[in-house]
Design a protein that fits this description.
This protein is α+β, with helices and mostly antiparallel strands. The chain contains 8 helices and 18 strands. The protein binds zinc ion (2 copies).
Length: about 350
């Protein structure tokens, strides 16, 4: 038996994309921490737009704050074209709490941080510069972020409206959001970006998957348009400290969810097994079409039944496999893609 999510440790619930009053969110960092703690989370990254702030002084026993920020590039700056631009939004999560530099600082994008500091005074890498919406510029940004202590993942593909033939050329991304609760809850975008994930995997990007809130909290908790507590990551780690949790994220020791939980994920022989909270359906996704020989890639239930365990044979030609678990409310958990060279 080989564990894909580590056997040891425990799961910590995390929201890794979130906005506070330091940029365009409605809640202060303290209010966000309190709300997420009360909702059973153990990890929160406040990732304000273009503003890297150290929040680790709010960490406490049982609750870990990770540092990070969200950066962006877009192809049109004119506000009247704001419904049409293509944009890249990247989440930067600091690998250590002392990482504090802003990457490729273009003064045009720094409208929140400059409420508090002159743009020249912000800690940064390199000179002030002009960002362009080009693959080469975006790759320089990702490279610089990786070299300066950040994990970099790709936010809300469905909202960004990029050409996937551009995205497939981005180098150095460690993951993408398969679910972003903000764009779903407040703007009604598709409930997941699974097709984008499969497309990018097929194009050769080895990405992990996140589900985040991207909450701005313009609506109160409990409101149908509230963007908190909808997408989360369950990170399995032996300790709740900065270094251990970052290592678990970098290693892909987590799954993304909007509801169901995964208790165990492992290989036994050539079969992948999942044990999960009571579910209605479990789906196997692979690089080619998923039906093969005697394998049925979709396990369903009759009325009143539930699934808490599923297994699928993994075939060498699968390229990668990943699982989706759907509960009776239609909410889903997503494993990352595991490539057959990791499994067989
Ligand atoms: Zn964004
Ligand atoms: Zn955001």
């Amino acid at each position: 038996m080989r564990y894909l999510l580590p056997e040891k440790g425990q799961f910590y619930k995390a929201n890794l994309h979130c906005h506070s009053t330091l940029s365009d969110g409605n809640l202060t960092p303290e209010e966000l921490k309190k709300a997420y703690k009360e909702h059973g989370y153990s990890i929160l990254a406040i990732t304000d737009h273009e503003y890297m702030v150290d929040h680790t002084d709010m960490s406490e026993e049982g609750f870990l704050m990770l540092n990070g920020y969200e950066m962006y590039v877009k192809d049109m700056m004119e506000p009247e074209l704001s419904r049409f631009y293509h944009t890249t939004h990247l989440n930067f999560i600091a690998k250590t709490p002392d990482v504090n530099k802003h990457i490729m600082v273009d003064p045009r994008f720094m409208r929140y941080a400059t409420r508090y500091h002159a743009v020249e005074d912000l800690p940064r890498v390199g000179d002030l510069c002009t960002r362009t919406y080009t693959v080469s510029c975006i790759n320089r940004i990702i490279k610089q972020a990786n070299e300066n202590g950040y994990l970099v993942f790709y936010n809300h593909p469905v909202w960004s409206r990029e050409d996937l033939t551009d995205v497939m050329q981005y180098q150095g991304l460690m993951g993408m959001e398969i679910y972003n609760h903000g764009v779903y809850a407040t703007e009604g975008y598709a409930s997941d970006d699974a097709q984008t994930y499969d497309t990018l995997l097929r194009m050769g990007q080895r990405l992990k998957v996140f589900a985040n809130d991207d909450n701005h909290n313009k609506y109160p908790f409990g409101d149908p348009l509230c963007d908190s507590f909808g997408g989360f990551n369950m990170i399995k780690a032996e300790k709740l400290d900065y270094e251990t949790v970052i290592a678990a994220i970098a290693n892909g020791d987590f799954y993304a969810s909007t509801g169901p939980t995964i208790e165990k994920l492992y290989m036994e022989g050539n079969k992948i097994h999942v044990e999960c909270s009571p579910a209605r359906e479990v789906f196997l996704r692979t690089e080619p079409r998923n039906k093969a020989k005697n394998r049925i890639p979709h396990i369903g239930t009759r009325a009143g039944e539930v699934i808490t365990h599923a297994e699928f044979e993994v075939l060498p030609e699968d390229g990668y496999v990943r699982l989706e678990i759907m509960d009776h409310a239609g909410k889903k958990a997503y494993t990352r893609a595991y490539f057959v060279d990791e499994l067989l």
